Amino acid sequence: MAAAQTDRETASSGSEFLNFSAKDTAARWLAASDLQQEVFVHLCRAVPSLLCLGPSTEERRAEQREELACQLMLLAPLEWLLLGQEPTAGLGLLQEGNQPSPLCGHVFKVGEPTYSCRECAADPTCVLCMECFLGSVHKEHRYRMTTSGGGGFCDCGDAEAWKKGPYCHKHTPTTTHRDSEEDPVAMLPPDMVARSYSIFSILLKYAVDMLTWQPEDTLPPGLEPPEKADTFYCMLFNDEVHTYEQVIYTLQKAVSCSQKEAVSFATTVDRDGRKSVRYGDYQFCEQSKSVIVRNTSRQSKPLRVEVMHSSVVAHQCFALKALSWMGQIIQYSDGLRRVLCQVGLQKGPEGENSSLVDQLMLNDSKMWKGARNIYHQLLMNSLLMDLKYKKIFAIQFAKNYRRLQTDFMEDDHERVVSVTSLSVQLFTVPTMARMLMVEENLMTTIIRTFVDHLRHRDLQGRFQFDRYTAQQAFKFGRVQSLIGDLKYVLISRPSEWTDQLRIKFLEGLDAFLELLKCMQGMDPVVRQVGQHIEMEPEWEAAFTLQMKLTHIISMIQEWCSTDEHVLIEAYRRCLSALSHCHGGLPDGEQPISLSLAGHAVESFRYQVSQEKVSIHLPVCRLLAGLHVLLSRTEVASRFPERLPLGELSPPLLIELPLRCLVLCAQVHAGMWRRNGFSLINQIYYYHNVKCRVEMFDKDVIMLQAGASMMDPNHFLMILLNRFELFHIFSSTDARRRYRDINKDVSQQNNTLIEEMLHLIIMVISERYLSGVGQVEPFDEVRREILHQLSIRPMAHSELVKALPENGNKETGLEKVIDSVASFKKPGVTGRGLYELRPDWLKHFNLYFHHFSRADQSKAEEAQRKLRRQNGQDTALPPPLPPPLCPLFASLVNLLQCDVMLSVCGAVLSWAIEPSGGGWTESMLQRVLHLVGLALLEEQQQLENIDGDDEVTFNYSSKITRPGESTGSILSLLESLQNPPHLEVHKDMITWILKMVSNIKTMRELTSASSSVTISQRHGPEESVRDRDRAERSRKADLARQRREKIMVQMSEMQKHFISQNKELFQQSMEDLEASSSANANSAPPSQPGCVSQVCVGPCRMARVNPRQLVTCILCQEEQEVKGHGRAMVLAAFIQRSTVLSKNRTHTENHQPLFMHPDLSLGIHTASCGHIMHATCWQRYFEAVQLKEQRRQQRLRGHTSYDVENGEFLCPLCECLSNTVIPLLPHTHSVEHSVDHPSLGAWLKTTNQQIAALHRKQTDGLSEGEEPVVPEGFRLDFTPQPPFSSSVNEMMTTFSLSVYKVALKTNANDQDPRVPVLLWSTAAYTVQSIERLLMEEEKPLFGSLPCRQDDCLSSLTRFSSACWTAAPLTTAHTHFIRLFAALVPDSQVENSPSLLDMDMFHLLVYSVLSYSSVHSLDQSGVSVDSAHLHLLQLVTVAHLVQILLTSTTEEVCMDQDSGASEEEEFTCQLYNTLREHLGSVIPEVSSGWQLSRCVRAGVLPFLRSAALFFHYLNSTEPPDDLLVAGPVQWEALCSFLSLPSNLLQLHQTNNTLLEPLIHRWCHHPAVRSSLEGGGVMVRFPRESNRLIELPEDYSVLINQASSFTCPRSGGDKSRAPTLCLVCGSMLCSQSYCCQTEVEGEDVGACTAHTFTCGAGLGLFLRVRESQVLFVAGKTKGCFYPPPYLDDYGETDQGLKRGNPLHLCSDRYRKIERLWRQHGVAEVIGHAQEANQTLVAIDWQHL
Ligand SMILES: [Zn+2]
Ligand SMILES: [Zn+2]
Ligand SMILES: [Zn+2]
Ligand SMILES: [Zn+2]
Ligand SMILES: [Zn+2]
Ligand SMILES: [Zn+2]
Ligand SMILES: [Zn+2]
């Protein structure tokens, strides 16, 4: 391929390029007689020589070069020609003269935020771009925010899209705006118009030809290149069948490229729809093609590959550029835009569908994705922005609708890249939709097209779907987009009807009824008896269809409700469709006659339990809906003569819905168990909020309609018959017989009776639909909310989910919620909740029709509890229902009809005997409810009685009549009042009897009416308190259970352990006794002269140390902590940390002995504070390991902890741990009697000791005289190992764990770095805890939780003893090197400079390593004075360090007004430094500022040192430091035995320190870093915080939408993810940004954690609104984001779209988690709690 490449270089960079003049070319073209011919001549030569010249090593550069060449040689002459002058100037002029239309038309990018106003938008598809939104009135309204899926544009400026506020500030039309009717073309110079016509025609035609061009090797006439090269492309096309992996794998094989190239190819194919994967001669390309086809054809149809001639590809490429160019040019001028529209829509000579736009549309499905995107974009910029042409285009689109949809069905691309997706832009404009409906019969077209594509029918012509496979779902999904279009058309109801519209709408309705007829009776079921069904029948497709159509059905009803004529006609047509469906229903068999309570009726011979029954009855339900509308609009009462009421046969109307309801009842009764899950699912969806409006609800309405038109006795008898219960109520014997024969049957019958009574209750009391009852539309929603909240308080989103949405995605919730509920804000966790207002409790209806059985019992329980708490009786009587509309008024008669009284009487009489399976509580409860309803009705009528009116309702007297075989209902009730087995119903019966007597009184006093009000008092607070208490005791219970479980396990273990180690056990008991006696004399003598408490140095006070007894959490045994006893350990977790890091680009530290002050990487240790015997822990850990091995054999995958890396969960609290810290006793006590040398003397001795050690280490070979060995310093001394082997073993365990985490490799315990790392984790942990306390403004001492306190104490003690486990010389060498960094030592080289050391680390290391030197000293010098001297030395060094790096800017302060001593001394030291370093450090004359700077800078060091010595020496902290408050400088200094003017340290030892300071300053690295080399750390180091987040979440979305993937040249990232630690935006969860870390491919987030957070990361996934925690490669979890909506809820996944705002408390909580190093623990707990998290491939995020 090399040859081809060099050819190209010469061709393009040749003279042609340089000599070309766009201006001259344009002039020549202008003069030509045949413009097209001239342009083609140019194109046919230039295009193949400029574009698509084969593969390039530098893809990006090649693209840029092509871009440039194309602009210069091809587009520039066109611009000259069009504008007649220099293009930039010409375009500027054009824009100036343009008066743009007020449409914004901003086209959305993928992921860009869009806004819709829930108050003003005509429909939810009307959206604004962010800029327009912020400048609009809707900002203050209730708005919804979503992220765009790409495509679509901003509707700002479209008056039809907004009920108000259609214009933002920017797009508000001014007076100079042209009239929309005026032709913008008229404003352009005529010659330009003429030129633009011809240029646009030539270019658009050229582009259309090229994009629809099929031959692979030839070009259209006039474009064949003069000399045709033998170069081809192997072009790979996108499909939706093959996965990324398949394509990548195939490409690696077929064109032998690297994985990385293959990924890049695959990414481009996915984005652009095609990509050339090989370039060369025909043979060469054909070869690859066949490999690809062969490799991908196995499971599915092969990938599409074509071998195309390079010149064809080049022209297609230019065609796209030309389209984009035209799209840009027309942005400058509305006139040019219109010209282009005219060109595009002009009919060609072939007539129909011959315009260029038609050709593009009709070839849409044949084009590749990239081409489609570009021409769709052009359509949006041109036709859709010009109101006149938008209409013409819409008509063309509607005319071709069926064909476009059919093409789309065949095509496998996503809908967003299909031209059919433009329907949303056209159909949602109400006037346009109406016009298309009238002129193009759009509604009918869409429905017919839809029906055509659903081909599966059974013999009766009903839909019958195959098994619902993925393939099916895909196809079906495509068909459903048609329903979407229908929805657009219907979304806004017409305010005015024309005759034409009526005709077309009714025509559409006919088509729709045809569709519903195909659904009526779909998927019938027959009860399975005997054996189980073999295969679950298909049901999902039918329900999906129903669900999708739900809104359409509702919308059609809404349309009907706006016009009387349409409503009547629709009712008529629906009825005739129904009778068509009913054809054959009553025929055939003889009806059966039923008689009961003196009434008789005939009914069909049919049993649900034995014959076919279907849940799908859309025709019946539509009729029910229309019936309600007749009532609501009062059409029924005004035009009864125009209604086909005579054709209605009520028993026929109710027949099918009743069957369906009975089916549900029978399923509940367990009669359909053998029919499997598919039926259960169908029943579930039938009642579900997504379907019920047009299913269950309408069936109830149909029964109400039927019952209101029938004799109530007949209705109830039919009901009894359908429920197959007639025989039970028609003769008492039958019932007895059944009860005795079969328990199952009798139970079934009981449930059926319950269900039937419930249904009757619903038929009578569900009146909250306007049209059935006399209610306002919002009463319905309010009632839904009320019943949801009577179950428990709920969050906003839960309520939204429980309510049905209308076509506008609104539930009406917001309008009423505040009237029924009060809102409680959430805390830092949880969400805001709505609680029902007490005054609404009286509206609670236990038999609310949307309660599931579970809801019902929960609500009942909650309500009864509430009433008990309020000291009320527990009766839950029916609420007063609203009055019925006239059409349904006769429904109330059901309550007092004879059959009803007989049914109720029967149940009440059964209840007299305690239930032996013969009746149920629920049955009785329902009957009592019905009685209550009847009494309420009567009372209501009595109250509303109006003079002469007669009260028709006379229930109270009817219930005094005795029944056929029983007493009167009233007497039954009276006798039921007291039996003990009816205790629960007592309150309700009492309520009923009271009502009866009330009514009696009312009837007696006919004139006056006294209403019964049953007072209700409420106390919601109490229930909250109760709940809290319950929750607490539940948690305590759980904890106790867990403890008991562990104890049982462990005591088993323990027994085993004791028997095995009898000897050891006895011995340790003896030890224990021995130590307790030795402990008595540890109290320190009181010290005169030490007035305050001090933690370091000779004056320090030791805490009275009683022996430390601890309890093992595993065996519950107590044990003293001793160096020689059984080792006790603390569960601990070690992790790398960058929380304090000031330098995130820092690489691994190769010199671990010195910590750089940037603290770029530390090792943090934490513990849950739980203590175990080392042996108990080992046992436990081994058991965990074993279990894990077994588990891994069974199922692969990860657990929440990584056993191989030593991780385990604390057996008590399940906290993630990866090692244990051995507990060590407090070691050295204060030796007050011994010598305390001065600093000078100590320095001298120490130097001598070091010299002696040097000598020993070089075996006396070093030159020079024999050094003086100080007295009592014994080089040959070997200290006794102070610990038992068990303690030593644990010391090694911990050491190696730290080593492994820190250096990511296993160590041997002799490695000299081992002690250093232990010291380092002690120092780092102290430092980070100091910062935490500071940030949270907590006192330095006394505020740490126990677990941290224990952890620090054992960590410090351990690190002070760890040198004993290493060879003595190791510790010596470390001390010598550390000491040399402060005090010059000629034998130590490469000491780091003062600016390259963190002083606190230096202090800790040198204090801890000094013990090893001190152990050789037998002279009796105290180690305490050495500690103090070291502290003082390091402090001075730190002061110097701070002064060197201070950035005091000169501020003129009055200095003469008495500078303090401290300020003076500070100036002196500073000036000394300036003497050494000169002008490298700035001149500062204000001592005040310097000393302030020093104090602030040294404070964290002092605080950390105080913590460190406190734990090291077990001193009591002074009282002053136990309280939070302003800096307690004095107390701190005195605790550390330092002067409060720290500079005195320098002053008093001036002569000793001077040489040291000299040397520090003259270290070469000091000068160079002060002169600006590398990162300079200043003090105090500012604590790291998580990045600032914007208050408004959409700012983030917007930011992320413009973020492009850094790897794939300008591509939008699919999952932009923000690092909360450093603020980097990453392209997560995507192939393009995978990198290799430690031999594994990881996603951008994981890769980033390794550089930014030492393997741990906190991210915000912007599109998901989700916080992501990642630790290592295998662990992670999602965490609630710190953004909440106004209802106090997060919106993970951004599904609801409520505006989100930053909750800073929650963000601070996340930040604290990070600073406390608690993220890994959170992940551990989350993964333990939710096993699915374990399965996620976190490393690919
Ligand atoms: Zn806009
Ligand atoms: Zn705007
Ligand atoms: Zn608004
Ligand atoms: Zn134990
Ligand atoms: Zn624990
Ligand atoms: Zn990427
Ligand atoms: Zn970062």
Pick out its properties.
1741 residues, 5-stranded antiparallel beta sheet, binds zinc ion, 64 helices, 7% strand
Summarize the structure.
With 1741 residues, this protein is α+β, with helices and mostly antiparallel strands.
How would you portray this structure in words?
The structure is a single chain. It contains 64 helices and 25 strands. A hairpin with an 8-residue loop joins strand 8 (821-824) and strand 9 (833-836). Helix 4 (35-50) crosses helix 12 (310-329) and helix 27 (650-668) packs across helix 29 (696-708). The longest helix is centred in the middle third of the chain and has 41 residues, at 1020-1060. Bound molecules: zinc ion (7 copies). One zinc ion binds at residues 1112, 1114-1115, 1117, 1172-1173, 1176.
What's the topology here?
Elements lengths: L1 H11 L2 H5 L2 H10 L3 H16 L8 H25 L3 H11 L12 E8 L12 H5 L8 E7 L40 H22 L20 E6 L6 H11 L4 H14 L1 E7 L1 H15 L8 E5 H20 L4 H12 L10 H7 L6 H13 L5 H13 L1 H10 L12 H5 L2 H11 L1 H12 L16 H21 L8 H21 L20 H22 L2 H19 L9 E5 L2 E5 L14 H15 L2 H4 L11 H19 L7 H12 L8 H13 L3 H11 L3 H5 L1 H10 L1 H23 L11 H13 L6 H7 L10 H8 E4 L8 E4 L16 H17 L23 H4 L1 H13 L10 H23 L11 H4 L10 H8 L9 H19 L15 H41 L1 H17 L30 E3 L6 E3 L7 E10 L24 E12 H21 L13 E2 L6 E2 L1 E4 L16 H19 L27 H19 L9 H23 L10 H16 L6 H13 L18 H16 L8 H23 L15 H17 L9 H27 L15 H7 L7 H6 L1 H12 L2 H7 L22 H9 L14 E4 L5 E3 L7 E3 L2 E3 ...
Antiparallel strand pairs: 1-2, 3-4, 3-5, 6-7, 8-9, 10-11, 12-13, 12-16, 14-15, 17-18, 17-21, 19-20, 21-22, 22-23, 24-25
Helix pairs in contact: 3-5, 4-5, 4-12, 5-8, 8-12, 8-13, 8-14, 9-10, 9-11, 12-15, 16-19, 17-20, 19-20, 20-21, 20-22, 21-23, 22-24, 23-24, 23-25, 24-25, 25-29, 27-29, 27-30, 27-33, 29-33, 33-40, 34-36, 39-42, 40-43, 48-49, 49-50, 49-52, 49-55, 51-52, 52-53, 52-55, 53-55, 54-55, 55-56
Bound molecules: zinc ion (7 copies).
The site of one zinc ion has 7 residues, from β13.
